[in-house]
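Researcher: Next entry: Methionine--tRNA ligase (Deinococcus knuensis).
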Amino acid sequence: MSQAASTPFFITAAIDYANGAPHIGHVYEKILTDAIARYQRLAGRPVTFVMGTDEHGEKISKAAAKAGVTPQELVDDLSERAFQGLWKNLGISYDEFVRTTSARHKRFVQEILQRVYDAGDIYFAEYEGLYSVGAERYVTEKELVENADGVRRFPGDKDPPELRREANYFFNMEKYQPWLLDYLQANPDLIQPAGYRNEVLEMLKEPVGPLSISRPKNRVPWGIELPWDADHVTYVWFDALLSYLTPLVSNGQDASVSGTAWHVIGKDILKPHAVFWPTMLRAAGLPMYRRLVVHSHILAEDGRKMGKSLGNAIDPEALVTEYSIDAIRYTLLREATLSADSPYGEGILISRLNSDLANDLGNLLSRTVSMIQKYRGGVVPAAQDLAERDRSIEAAALALPTQILALVDDLKINMAIEAAMNFVRDLNRYIAESAPWNLAKSDDTQRRLDTVLYTAAEGLRVASVALEAVIPTKARELRAQLGLASQTYALAPAWGLTPAGTRVVGGPILFPKPEPKEAPTPAAGAPKPGKKEKPMTQTAPTETATPTAPASAAAPATPAAASAATENLISIDDFARIDLRIAEVLAAEAVAKADKLLKLTVKLGDETRTVVSGIRQWFEPEALVGRKVILVANLKPAKLRGIESQGMILAAEDDQGNLDLIGTGLDLPSGTRVR
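Model: Predicted structure:
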């Protein structure tokens, strides 16, 4: 980490506007912020994680009137049931939850307002302009976008802005525009990813003007009264942004703690956090926040924007009911990137759940526990003489925490997860190479068996800590099955913390694969589906078995089907002409102006090639580096977007359209022929 482990860490997620139920974007943001906070705690830092609900403003007044309840009744229900209830179900580990209707928050807002007013930065004036009810602020013509119906609206609004003329109090925000521009240029890592910093720099090229910070109480009665004029209530953003500091100030800390804050927000509220908030802090004599982390949107699985009218929206409550919270957390964090809108849905969730969590991690745990039970009576043996491969696992385990924390500090959460899963996959390869089931057959290889079993168990402990910020519940369950239920561990370089003699406990499957969706009722006379495969137990088989289908299982082919199948058959000579090779990805980058294409640099033995592949939707370029894939090496070169592609990467697609790259379980050298 860039900070010492003892340095306090203060992080906030954007407080949620309590005029409707949370959506999947809210869920992603809170899981993202929670994961960052958990990584920091695992690194040994004292963390304060603040969340809350924004409960004032014109939209809430209108929503309450429409629902036939008071504004307070509306926000009480949404804050406590819809938002806090969902965050509890998702295991969000916030330390403070602030509500802007609380007495402590009102006091703090009025204190800061009075401070800025006394400094001469707030004045009264009449103003006419376009007002967005959705964004609850005045907007400019340049910010409006023409929609398909020909009407210009502020992005995200259902209705066009209204022309309003009224007398309000204004904050002299433009006074601080030169300072903010200089600050951003002197601190290039303040707003991340960098693309959003560039957006803010573009905003600051134009005059930002004054900021209207009040509304007449006779029009918007639902808000915090100005301390010097009870006929006006505070503009919702001047109220909401201060909520980040309310819990700490009310607990006795100085408001200058603002200078340590990491704020995590969605890209749609960039301007209030990157322009309004910094100038407010400056006017109040408070230091600038440490970092603004901006994330993009979650799209539907088909790549379109989600919407109820499109029928592709995800209901977070239904998602939490159907899938484990750790599977939701893992798949969202693994699939989404900060800088680009990311598709997500059940198909993506199930694909990652089955491949990464069930097959890679869950199966590794089941095999390890089963082998320790079978070969050592359930007791973890002591490692004996270490071979080079054992030491390579230990070295990787010792390097992993530092690697992960560096990636987290750089906000590459999906790459931190992939680093942990690469370690898990290497453990699986280690077991396959070591073949403990064969070692168990000879008295001469018992010491070697002890070492392999210990390495697998301790490697799983390391993996559980590396993944704990992402799958906190399952990480603890994993350790419980290893007999380490009462233990907590720091995310720090360590090996050998599983004591020899520990009795493994075992337990249910860590990540059960989802049951297939119920198929339509078959027509009368149709064959009944076969029995479902039994789930793996804590004493799962330790050797890979190849099931053989009975001869009678194949249905007789019709003459037409047999003819079509015969026409598609190739000879062994045809197959021999296809040159399939193991290739290692050395570099990967997006192809400009091509949403689907990645340019890969791959290694085939001593040869390096360029391959263009249409897999950008499913894979982040950074996550592919170092991965072994299968390449059609003798495909005729073709030019794609002006780049010569020298081969084709093999991939497989499920019936949901999810893609996975074909590889092998063994770490074979690049250039190895596949046959």
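Model: Note for the record: Residues 346-376 form the longest helix (31 residues).
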